[in-house]
Amino acid sequence: xxxxxMIACALLLALVLGSCASFRQQHGxxxxxxxxxxxxxxxxxxxxxxxxxCQSLAAAAGAGHRTWRAYLSNSLSPGSPxxxxxxxxxxxxxxxxxxxxxxxxLSELHGNNNINKQTAxxxxxxxxxxxxxxxxxxxxxxxxxxxxxxxxxxxxxxxxGNWTLSGAGAAMVGHHDRLGLRDDAPSRSWNSSHxxxxxxxxxxxxxxxxxxxxxxxxx
Length: 219
Known about the structure:
Helix content is 28%, strand content 13%. By secondary structure, it is of the alpha+beta class.
């Protein structure tokens, strides 16, 4: 016969084991969608500021022991070389906060990956609003082509001035939920769906964004 104290001990043990499992998953996390933007739209203080944003969010979630990089490209401009998002994030594999692998390699990430609304979780292990939710926040800033390389052209029109503008301009975004207005490749693209309507937070919100970015552990 189980006594109240035995039941209490069993419940406590279950709680401890669950917490340990959650810690291991968070500790092994190597990919997430940022739970928040910087509050300045697409002005992320450049790639360095975006990386720091990823690092800070990861640290708060118990994964600060890794080196985190934002999945963002820079377009060529005077004083700023071309930077390809795919070259910044290591070689994989990458898994979310629940331990689910989203890609094993760069080729898989930019091919048949496992990124969707159910797996593109925040560093807290939470789902991000997508198409059909209120508000829709499925636009994730990338400034990249489908293969993870930079887009040729004026950075003001491709990366919001290489992630320094919060007014006029545009940046390429992807859909973390793989859904859009049409059933075509761009609408289903996680990293290269369409250009934003501008660079401010209001502009990003107007087309279904919130200034979020993808964060990958490079090591």
